[in-house]
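Ticket #451: bound-state structure for magnesium ion.
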Amino acid sequence: MALEGLGKSLRNILGRIGSATSVDEGLINEVCKDLQRALLEADVNVRLVLDLTNKVKERAVSEPPPAGSSMKDHLTKIIYQELVNLVDNGEGIALKPQKIMMVGLYGQGKTTTTGKLALYFSKKGFSVGLIGADVYRPAALDQLKQLGEKVGVEVYGEPGESDAPGIVKRGIEKFKDKKIVIIDTSGRHALEDDLIEEVRKIAEVAKPEERVLVLDSQVGQQAGPQAEAFHNAVGVTGVILTKMDGTAKGGGAISAISKTNARIVFLGTGEHIRDLEAFDASKFISRLLGMGDISSLIQTVNENVDDPDAMAKITESMMSGKFTLNDMYYQMAAVGKMGPLQKVMSMLPGFSAMEDKIDYEASQKKLQVFRVIMDSMTKEEKEDPSIIKSKRIERISAGAGVSPHDVRELLKQYNQTKKTMAAVGKNRKMRKQMMKQLGGVDLEALKNLQT
Ligand SMILES: Nc1nc2c(ncn2[C@@H]2O[C@H](COP(=O)(O)OP(=O)(O)OP(=O)(O)O)[C@@H](O)[C@H]2O)c(=O)[nH]1
Ligand SMILES: [Mg+2]
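RESOLUTION: The complex was predicted; output attached.
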């Protein structure tokens, strides 16, 4: 299965519900079959898969949709909720004195995350000691020491020593007064017996309360076997998914927790030691399903757009069925101001699939061309671009000094965006979330601002 296959197939399933003419038992059965296939392919435990689809079927048949909600929305919501239940496997790491051991393959983010956890627990008022038990990579101890220095916590290591369990034993002795001791271990490119044997021995010596598997969110189907191997060796209690700031959505984590019965405790969201987020099951599934994260989008807009009118226009037009070329222009201009366009776009429902194709500079250039083209349009054309046929395209392109192709491209982009916006408008939950975020804004007054 391709990278991020699970997220993609789940998004396809929701798409299928969306485009079905009606929801009947046939569709429910088919959707459940697709769900089973997607989850089994992602290596999710058979029993969990059957539990989930049985619940979806049962609820879809027995629970009537809430008043005002369509059967399609209802079925989508049930699937969403059951997926949230699937990953909602317990509380985060307890705030109590304990030893935490990090395991995982090469480059997954163990050492970085060790530093992040050190900062997290220090901030909560715990004394923290770090033990560098990666005897495999020569620079590993220096990397950990640098992190320790940044956070202001002590690091124990023995340069040149190759007996990792021995280092851990002496480190624990040295840190016997620390409330939190975190052990960083080595990784390998692939699962190897000596690595597994090493972490098993370290766990035997350290008896850590938490054995945390660190998993890169890009790891797809391989997450299952990796988790299983580490689980058999040390009994994985928690999973930390790293690099969630990239384009991957972390579907592999579902396989990992299915193999270990552990819960996801944190997400790594960047290279900096502050970039650690407590795991939130609903947010995670929304992202995996490509439902976008409207509330964080609105927050980003609020924090970054210095032109409140533009912000108001975007939101207003997203909510109403009406979406003009002016709206699109303001939307693009405002989004452009928000810095890493990619990050923002990935929060927009419908855009998550195309996020790696977005070229920030190119879209800024395109925006300039669009502005010139729009200046050659009449007010009527901007409000209802559907009236623009080939005669008008010729006139507009000549007026703007661009090719008819450029005008067509603008219209194409407009039609696509309009479709996405209409979908947002129809989604009650997203609308509600937006209304909540917008609290005090007077939508009627905003309408009058529209040119
Ligand atoms: N963008 C991003 N990068 C991360 C994150 N976590 C770790 N990294 C980067 O991933 C790379 C590998 O991280 P390490 O912490 O060295 O990984 P490791 O598991 O300790 O690797 P080994 O010790 O070689 O097995 C580094 O460049 C980190 O900066 C994250 O959440 N987001
Ligand atoms: Mg490391």
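RESOLUTION NOTES: The two ends are 49 Å apart (CA to CA).
TICKET STATUS: resolved
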